Amino acid sequence: MESLQIKKLLFVVVCITVAFVAAIADSPTCPASDLGSKCSDEWKGEFFPGIPKIKYEGPSSKNPLAFKWYNAEEVILGKKMKDWMRFSVAFWHTFRGTGGDQFGAATKNWPWEDGTNSVAMAKRRMRANFEFINKLGVNRWCFHDRDIAPDGATLEEANKNLDEVVELAKELQKGTDIKPLWGTAQLFMHPRYMHGGATSSELGVYVYAAAQVKKAMEVTHYLGGENYVFWGGREGYQSLLNTDMGRELDHLARFLEAAANYKKKIGFNGNLLIEPKPQEPTKHQYDWDVATTASFLRKYGLIDEFKINVECNHATLSGHSCHHELETARLNGLLGNIDANTGDPQIGWDTDQFLTDIQEATMVMLSVVRNGGLMPGGFNFDAKLRRESTDVEDLFIAHITGMDTLARGLRNVAKLIEDGSLEALVKKRYASFDSDLGAQIEAGKADFETLEKKALEWGEPKVPSAKQELAEMIFQSAL
Ligand code: XUL
Ligand code: CO
Fold first, then answer.
1. Is the pTM higher than 0.70?
2. Closest CA to 178 of 188, 190, 167, 170
3. Which residues are identified as catalytic?
4. Please, which residues bridge with residue 90 across strands?
């Protein structure tokens, strides 16, 4: 009798143990507390359990984990939405963003993070990146060399770390159509870059920066990257009193020229993109805005080697609208890619928020459609969660909203084009130039004597209304 009870008790204990072990083995996330067992960099479990593959459910859906406007396969204006958009996840914001700011510590506590910057952690994070991309249904990602792999005590060590993580990314890309929209080198975090990289006053830094960019170009190419970006985070000055601006700009041009030559040498066919930003972190950055960058490229004979990556939040920092920057790039044949984020009208710095303004998105998409798309560029979400948004699902919700906002913009542009009245309004405004004299002027064949004769003949011109309010009314009706 007694032995039967002991057996029963033993049976219960065994059952509880089995259930407990099974629960751990089944634990859907990879908590940092469980490192060393199943949560190694080789762990192949799910990082985002409970998050399904995000699907299109249409505008009436109330499901936060579904697209309301972005329908990847739907054809709009002759192209699939996914081909207009070519969306990409920014590795640094999504997987390295901590929520920390200059007044407070990190707020994000992602279950797969162990708080280290080890190669093993970098590899686990890369696996999370690929699951995220797959579930979101985009097939591109963007990275800085130093976000995806830890820096090293020497250049050799940094390159070795990078190679190890890149090899895993290559393996995870195999058999998929996932690839980097662009890669770049981070030339702003390390103290050696305090005076800049290509514009540093110190030769050794210029040399180191060149070696770092060379390696970043190689790995971007190796991963099938479609573009390579230069954002001159510290290529500028804090004071002109101690700066030889002419010499720094010459150095920057020679650096970019060497990159353009190296691109050809390694057979990289993607675009080289310069990303303008007026300031932050420096007081003044040389690639201030699109027009400044275009004139720099022209001066140094580099205009055919580069295109521009317009970031919307950078546009507003330089006192322009994103639409202005996109149109300036497009009209110069330089529109290559868009970092689709936005700032806050009451905050004066780069807040890198996901785009939610439908009016702005419609204007952005107007430029993209006029440009015939962005190929081989696309949209990179250079945007991060707010510090106070701390749930894993917030990462998905933020991207879904950013994608839906731009998709809505594209749908609005289709409405505007179909309606035709905005285009007709603009055409009518310039109709007087659709004349013999107008054609002569536009062909550069009207000299001042001819024009003076006409002015005397015609007398005071009758000047029509610009119809701005009507244009705004037509625009609004498409939103
Ligand atoms: C910084 C910024 C960068 C670049 C890549 O404001 O936009 O993340 O996009 O270096
Ligand atoms: Co950017």
1. yes
2. 170
3. 144
4. 142
